[in-house]
Write a structure and sequence with these properties.
Mean pLDDT: 86
Strand order of the largest sheet: 1-2-5-4
Distance between the termini: 38 Å
Structural class: alpha/beta
Low-confidence stretches: 315-345
Oligomer: single chain
Number of helices: 9
Shape: globular
Strand content: 5-15%
Number of strands: 9
Length: 349
C-alpha cells in the first residue's frame, strides 16, 4: 500500500465513523478510562495520527485492550499473533538512523548489561516507513494488562485546576450558556461552575477551550485558529480548528484523568466530513496538531509544577473546594448541545 492509498483508507474509515458518531473523539470517555493506544513492548503511548488511527480501529473492532505492537514486539512479550489475524498499518517518520558504536578494533561496544551501544545520526533526507501492528486481543499468551488504580476525583479535579492555571490563560465565568476562547482578549469564557452537570463536565469543557488557546500568536500561532476566527462559524477553517480542539481535549482529558465529553461536536460533523473528503491527509495533520496542543498544555503544567516544588509551594489551586460542594453538581442553566457563536469570539463549544 503506497502512502496515498494509506491516507485515503484512513480518512474514509474516519469519515464513516463520523457519520455514525463513533469516531474516537465523538464518544464519551469516563474519568480514568484508558482510551489512547499504547505500545505493548515499551508501554509508551502512540502519538498523533498513529494514536488516532489505532484508537479508531479499537472502536470499530470493539477491542477493549489498548495495547498494540508489531509481530516481533508481541513475541518478545511472550505472545503469539493468531493465524489469520489482519494487522493495521501505521506510519513512522524516520529522520535519524541508528549506528552501532565500535571500538578501535571495529568491534561493537557493549553496555554493562552486554547490550550493543548505538548512536543516532540525523538523515539528510528523512522518509516515512509503514509498519504493521496488531492489537493485544489478536494474540494469545500476553500477560494481563495492568490497570492502575484511578485517582480519587477530588485529586483529579485538583490536577485539572492546576493545568488550567499553569497555562496562564485567564478564565472568566459568566451567567450564560456558552463556552468559548476569545483570541483578541486572550481569555477563556465559561458558564458559572454550578451550571455544569458535574465537575468533570466543567473541566472537559475547559480543556477544549484551553486547546484553542494554544493557537494564540504568542504560543503556537496556529493557522487554523486565526483562519477559523477570520472566516467564522460554518467555514471549513472553523471546522478544522474544532476538529483539532476536540481531539486535543480527548487526549488531554485522558492524561489528566477527567475523561471526555463529545456532546457539543454535532455542529461540525458536516465540516469535518467535507475537510477529509477534500484532503485525506487532513485527519493526520489534525491529529498531529492536537498532539502538539495537548503536549504544550501539559508541558507548561510540568514546568510550573517543578517550579512550585523548587519554591516549596503548597498552595491549593483556586476553587478546588468548589469541586467538593453539592452546588457543583447542581444544574442551574443547561448548557446547550450546539452553541451560537458570538461575533468576535474564537472557536467555541
Amino acid at each position: 500500500m503506497n502512502h496515498d492509498e494509506y491516507h485515503r483508507k484512513f480518512a474514509d474509515a474516519i469519515i464513516e465513523q463520523i457519520r455514525k458518531g463513533t469516531a474516537p473523539w465523538q464518544k464519551p470517555w469516563a474519568p480514568g478510562e484508558r482510551v489512547m493506544p499504547m505500545n505493548v513492548d515499551t508501554d509508551r503511548s502512540y502519538r498523533g495520527g498513529n494514536s488516532l488511527h489505532l484508537a479508531s480501529v479499537q472502536q470499530e473492532q470493539g477491542y477493549g485492550d489498548v495495547r498494540w505492537g508489531t509481530y516481533r514486539q508481541i513475541q518478545a512479550r511472550g505472545g503469539q499473533v493468531r493465524k489469520g489475524e489482519r494487522g493495521t498499518r501505521i506510519l513512522s517518520f524516520q529522520d535519524k538512523k541508528r549506528i552501532a558504536v565500535t571500538d578501535a578494533q571495529g568491534k561493537p561496544r557493549r553496555d554493562a548489561e552486554g547490550k550493543k551501544v548505538y548512536r543516532y545520526e540525523k538523515l539528510k533526507a528523512p522518509f516515512v516507513r509503514q509498519y504493521t501492528v496488531f492489537n493485544a486481543e489478536q494474540a494469545d499468551g500476553l500477560p494481563e494488562r495492568s490497570n492502575p488504580t484511578p485517582e480519587p476525583l477530588w485529586k483529579v479535579h485538583q490536577e485539572a485546576e492546576r493545568v488550567m492555571e499553569d497555562v496562564g490563560v485567564p478564565v472568566r465565568h459568566v451567567q450564560g450558556d456558552r463556552a468559548y476562547y476569545h483570541m483578541k482578549r486572550d481569555e477563556i469564557v465559561l458558564p458559572e461552575r454550578g451550571q455544569f452537570p458535574s465537575a468533570n463536565n466543567y473541566y472537559q469543557t475547559a480543556l477544549h477551550e484551553l486547546g484553542h488557546s494554544t493557537g494564540h500568536p504568542e504560543r503556537m500561532n496556529r493557522e487554523t485558529l486565526a483562519e477559523g476566527i477570520k472566516n467564522g462559524f460554518g467555514s471549513p477553517d472553523y471546522a478544522r480548528e474544532e476538529l483539532r480542539a476536540e481531539i486535543s481535549a480527548m487526549m488531554t482529558g485522558e492524561r489528566v484523568g477527567v475523561g471526555h465529553d463529545p456532546s457539543r461536536g454535532a455542529a461540525y460533523v458536516e465540516g469535518w466530513i467535507q475537510a477529509l473528503e477534500e484532503d485525506p491527509r487532513e485527519i493526520r495533520r489534525a491529529a498531529a496538531d492536537a498532539q502538539r496542543m495537548s503536549d504544550y498544555v501539559l508541558a507548561r503544567h510540568i514546568e510550573r509544577g517543578q517550579a512550585r516544588e523548587s519554591a516549596g509551594a503548597t498552595r491549593e489551586p483556586m476553587a478546588v473546594a468548589a469541586t467538593r460542594t453539592p452546588g457543583f453538581q447542581r444544574i442551574q442553566v443547561p448548557v446547550p448541545q450546539i452553541p451560537t457563536p458570538r461575533r468576535g469570539a474564537g472557536p467555541s463549544r
